Amino acid sequence: MADIEKINPTEIVPAELLGDLRKIIDSARSHVAATANYELTAMYWHIGDRINRDVLNNERAEYGKQIVATVARQLQEEYGTKGFEERTIRRMMQFAQTFPDFQIVSPLVSKLSWSTNCVDAVDTITARV
Questions:
Q1: Is 19 part of any domain?
Q2: Given this model, what pLDDT does residue 117 score?
Q3: 13 in helix, strand or coil?
């Protein structure tokens, strides 16, 4: 055991090993970010679809204004303000309304980032479809 303590740590870790470890870490981080991004964007589509379909029934404009504000406020109370502002909820609704079939959206969601403006995301999907 005393011999191990005398070894210089830089001599123990070859550059090739360290390079491989960096690749593994970078790949995992990239995969985690892509997976989280996919899930967030899919969640936002489903929120928009649920509000459009089940709450607003795609027709009651005045009631819709009130309910969206209320939904935003209640979600912010429970989940925090980031991501659930009324404006963002409306973008979710626009996203789901523009692409009512999630089966079309799903494979493309991995190519998008919700941090992108939703209108830009819609344009990106439209260009790819």
A1: yes
A2: 45
A3: coil
